[in-house]
Amino acid sequence: MGHRKLTPGKLVVASHNKGKVREIVDLLRPFGFEVVSASDLGLPEPEETGLTFEENAALKAVAAANASGLPSLADDSGFCVAALNGDPGIYSARWAGPDKDFAMAMRTIEEKLRSIKAETPEQRRGSFVAVLCLAWPDGHQELFRGEVEGEVVWPPRGTQGFGYDPIFQPDGHDRTFGEMPSEDKHGWSIDTPALSHRARAFQLFAKTCLEG
Ligand code: IMP
């Protein structure tokens, strides 16, 4: 099936996570869409029953496209620690519990790494993954994956960003995502390579569905 271009107009960002909606709205800004979020439209939040980032992104985008009758963009993302077999992965939000306590979730990761004596940078590899799914009301879907590799650091550093940002230092940088303003975390413009997982997925999405 060929790729489909998205024509400017109304676009639903199929997320109820404020940090994420803000980031996606920032990334979409240059393209002139009228962005509405799933929570603005009062759409229900589907349960993330998939076993991969791709399945969960598609499930959210398709639910929003069906409910709104508009093209809908969803992101499923997470933090993967190699020495923990990729955990928390698709369970990244769930590790923070109902109170969204990421200080606790970051501590859990550190305790697990200590319990297996993962101390060197090589033993503390981590990555952020983001998969974007764009779904149209007629069922057409496009999927894009972005990843960024780095080191899991302790203690947490920085108060910017959200989630696991304070314990992730991307390769080639001496600041964590928590210490970077959003422009540096995403490092994205039309012509330069992106840094964050979400900006990398977004760059693929823009190249495939928005340009030309
Ligand atoms: P989702 O809403 O199911 O995609 O869960 C994503 C979860 O992964 C978030 O709640 C965060 O815990 C984590 N996560 C994803 N992207 C980022 C990021 O850019 N920085 C920090 N944490 C992230």
UniProtKB/TrEMBL annotation:
Catalysis performed (reactions): XTP + H2O = XMP + diphosphate + H(+); dITP + H2O = dIMP + diphosphate + H(+); ITP + H2O = IMP + diphosphate + H(+)
Cofactor(s) listed: Mg(2+)
Coiled coil segments of this chain: none
MF annotations from Gene Ontology: dITP diphosphatase activity; ITP diphosphatase activity; metal ion binding; nucleotide binding; ribonucleoside triphosphate phosphatase activity; XTP diphosphatase activity
Keyword Methyltransferase: no
Keywords assigned: Hydrolase, Magnesium, Metal-binding, Nucleotide metabolism, Nucleotide-binding
Record InterPro entries: dITP/XTP_pyrophosphatase, ITPase-like_fam, RdgB/HAM1
Cofactor note: Binds 1 Mg(2+) ion per subunit.
Catalytic residues identified in the record: D76 (proton acceptor)
Binding-site residues, Mg(2+): E47, D76
Amino acids binding substrate: S15, H16, N17, K18, G19, K20, S77, F162, G163, Y164, D165, K185, H197, R198
Enzyme Commission code(s) on record: 3.6.1.66
An example Gene Ontology biological process: nucleotide metabolic process
PANTHER family from the UniProt entry: INOSINE TRIPHOSPHATE PYROPHOSPHATASE (PTHR11067:SF9), INOSINE TRIPHOSPHATE PYROPHOSPHATASE/HAM1 PROTEIN (PTHR11067)
Role played: Pyrophosphatase that catalyzes the hydrolysis of nucleoside triphosphates to their monophosphate derivatives, with a high preference for the non-canonical purine nucleotides XTP (xanthosine triphosphate), dITP (deoxyinosine triphosphate) and ITP. Seems to function as a house-cleaning enzyme that removes non-canonical purine nucleotides from the nucleotide pool, thus preventing their incorporation into DNA/RNA and avoiding chromosomal lesions.
Subunit annotation: Homodimer.
Similarity field: Belongs to the HAM1 NTPase family.
Protein name, as recorded: dITP/XTP pyrophosphatase
Organism of provenance: Roseibium aggregatum
Chain's gene name: rdgB
